[in-house]
Amino acid sequence: MRVVMKSRYVIFTFVLLITGFLIALSFQLDADFGKNSFVEQDSQWQTEDDLRNDVLLEQETTRELTEQLREIQSEIKQIEETVSDQEQLYFNLVEDMDKLRMVTGEIGVKGEGILVTLTDAEYIPGEDNPNSYIVHEQHIQQVVDELLVSGAEALAINGHRVTHRTYIQCIGPVIEIDGEIAFAPFEVKAIGDRDTLDEALNLTGGVKDQLVNENIQVRIEKKTDIQIDPYFSESGEDT
């Protein structure tokens, strides 16, 4: 009987040991799982925090680069405006220089315009003074002045370029232009808007009418292509 009880006690003890071991193992597994789960969760939070910081850093870098880009664009715009102003200034200077060279007769000019021919009238014997039937310097000067006022860009008298220093004077039956002798008929070439120049000379009571009243024969022709050479050069051809 004691042997049986002892055997039961041993078996019961063994069962308790096994049960205790299983319970301890279960607690250990739960503890390890909880620890591992916490570590994994903490690692995930750390990763998300690192990514968030990276995104914030990239956004800050983007803002700085955007601001730098705006500053560069502003500088480029200022440079472009400065260059544009300089180009316009250079263009204006070149244009003014060309106009000045044109006025002084340093360069040849070609373009549309008109040709005015002044011819002595046929003298009638026994009538007034013969000088009343020939072209004088004032007649040519009238034509030149009217053409200049009407926008003529360049002028020539019998091929001689007219400049801001040109002088015209009579010497007997001929006319001297800047020291050169010119004979009738006198051809005055003018480059400019041919319609405007033609209308200016043909105004009622204007230059043409005044010259005709003073016995000067006047012929005005509109030309599509007139060439006026530089000062003191040979005259060009016109059509």
Q: Please, could you describe this protein's structure?
A:
It comes from Salipaludibacillus agaradhaerens (Bacillus agaradhaerens). This is DUF881 domain-containing protein. Belongs to the UPF0749 family. InterPro entries: DUF881. The protein has helices at 2-103, 137-149, 194-201, 207-213; strands at residues 109-120, 154-157, 160-162, 168-171, 174-177, 180-182, 186-191, 216-228. The chain is of the alpha+beta class and 239 residues long. It folds into two domains: 1-103; 108-228, 2-Layer Sandwich (Alpha-Beta Plaits), CATH 3.30.70. The strands form two sheets. The protein has a five-stranded antiparallel sheet, with helices on one face. 18% of the residues are buried.
* CATH domain fold name of the largest domain: Alpha-Beta Plaits
Overall pLDDT confidence: 78
How would you describe the shape? rod-shaped
CATH superfamily of the largest domain: Protein of unknown function DUF881
* CATH architectural category of the largest domain: 2-Layer Sandwich
Radius of gyration: 54 Å
Query: What is the SS-derived class?
Result: alpha+beta
Question: How many β strands by DSSP?
Answer: 8
In DSSP terms (H or I, runs of 4 or more residues), the helix count works out at: 4
Uncertain stretches of 5 or more adjacent residues? 1-6
Helix amount: 40-55%
Largest β-sheet summary: 5 strands, antiparallel
Quickly count the domains.
Answer: 2
Order of helices and strands: HEHEEEEEEHHE
Look at the structure and give the CATH class of the largest domain. Alpha Beta
Strand content: 15-25%
Tell me the distance between the termini: 156 Å
Strand order of the largest sheet: 3-2-7-1-8
